[in-house]
Design goal:
The complex is a heterodimer of chains A (120) and B (218). With 120 residues, chain A is mainly β. Helices cover 12% and strands 53% of the residues of chain A. Chain A has one domain: Protein Yojf, Chain: A (Distorted Sandwich). Chain A is globular and about 45 Å long. Chain B has one domain: LmbE-like (Rossmann fold, 3-Layer(aba) Sandwich), CATH 3.40.50.10320. Chain B has a 7-stranded mixed sheet, sandwiched between helices. In chain B, helix 2 packs antiparallel against helix 6. Chain B is globular. The chains are: A mainly beta (120), B alpha/beta (218). At the A-B interface, strand 2, strand 7 and strand 8 of A face helix 7 of B.
Chain lengths: 120, 218
């Protein structure tokens, strides 16, 4: 099994470039869990995900330092953006999986790019 | 004595935290138990600690954990193939009809599920509501009893004390083993409990030693 590694900015940039000007499928998600306001009544439950958005981007960049990275994909008529990315892997289907986890290993944000649809 | 018990929860590990002591008690009495698990918890955010799962590998990992947990509990498992977080958007009518069909085949004497609107997670509330709806659509003299589990902070204030309170401390070990079978999900909770208290065993007993339910009134 591949395990996610810490971000290496040059390696991730190379992977992002691999999908330039191609029709790709994107999974983009952020969440603080379904129990946030259960355990803390002052907290809000917030989350969003989009799975298998079909996009083409012309330009992509990963920016950041010290374990806190942002990724932006520039499309003809808009952007895809994720903040808080700290790990990545290229899985056995050659998909680029990027994610941000908190200290307990819980996923806070993920941005994934694939040339074939993600399971649904 | 029950004839057959059906447990209806949406996520792998809901059965472990919610009802594994009660299930173990039934199994010790030789009563068949079937778990209808709605999803594979595909959208869970616990990825193990340190992380060993990602969004794409999580479903298969949780499926294996679920099968393992059902072995620990010695229950039959049916995976219903809905997607985590989306149950409340499915047609209530369709989900209820599907559950009704399964229940009519199994003919249980008891159904355990979540208490709609008092089960915190939207999937819990939606699946609990569909389960209650399914049973309500059954022929009156074939209807199983329903035990609904409420976990909201305000459930006692809103609903009163639950009428079914099971002391499951004799089965605590099986309960812990069931929870631990869900490795990707359990680590977070276990380490939080270890962090919160000096006497881990006492904390486990206090937090996991009782399972309570409200008998649904149709």
């Amino acid at each position: 099994m591949n395990w996610m590694e810490q971000i290496h900015i040059d390696k991730v940039q190379t992977e992002l470039n691999r999908f330039l000007n191609k029709e790709v499928y994107v999974h983009l998600e952020t969440t603080n869990g379904a129990y946030a306001s259960h355990f803390d009544d002052k907290a809000y439950n917030v989350g969003a995900f989009i799975r298998n958005a079909k996009v083409t981007y012309q330009h992509a960049k990963i920016v950041g330092i010290n374990g806190a990275y942002r990724v932006g994909l520039k499309m003809d008529i808009g952007w895809v953006y994720a903040e808080g990315i700290n790990q990545y892997e290229v899985d056995n289907q050659n998909r680029l999986l990027m994610a941000g986890h908190d200290r307990e290993g819980r996923l806070m944000v993920t941005l994934e790019i694939s040339e074939t649809p993600f399971s649904y | 004595m029950e004839k057959h018990v059906v447990v209806i929860y949406p996520h792998p590990d809901d059965e472990a935290f919610g009802a594994s002591g009660t299930i173990t008690k039934f199994r010790k009495e030789g009563i068949p138990v079937t778990y209808l698990c709605g999803t594979l918890g595909e959208m869970g955010r616990n990825m193990g600690n340190p992380t060993f799962a990602n969004r794409e590998t999580l479903p298969e990992i949780r499926k294996k954990e679920l099968i393992e947990a059902c072995k620990v509990l010695d229950v039959e498992l049916q995976m219903l193939g809905y997607r985590d977080k989306t149950l409340e958007f499915e047609s209530r009518d369709e989900v209820a009809e599907r559950l009704k069909g399964i229940l009519e085949k199994i003919e249980p004497s008891l159904v355990i599920t979540h208490y709609p609107e008092h089960a915190v997670h939207p999937d819990h509330n939606a699946f609990g509501a569909a389960a209650v709806e399914a049973v309500s659509r059954m022929d009156k003299n074939k209807r199983p009893t329903v035990w609904a589990q409420a976990i909201s902070m305000t459930h006692i204030q809103d609903l009163g004390e639950p009428d079914i309170v099971n002391d499951i401390t004799p089965y605590l070990k099986t309960k812990m083993n069931t929870i631990l079978a869900h490795k990707s999900q359990a680590q977070g909770m276990i380490s939080k409990m270890k962090q919160d208290s000096e006497d881990f065993e006492a904390t486990v007993k206090a937090r996991l030693g009782t399972e309570s339910f409200y008998t649904w009134k149709f």
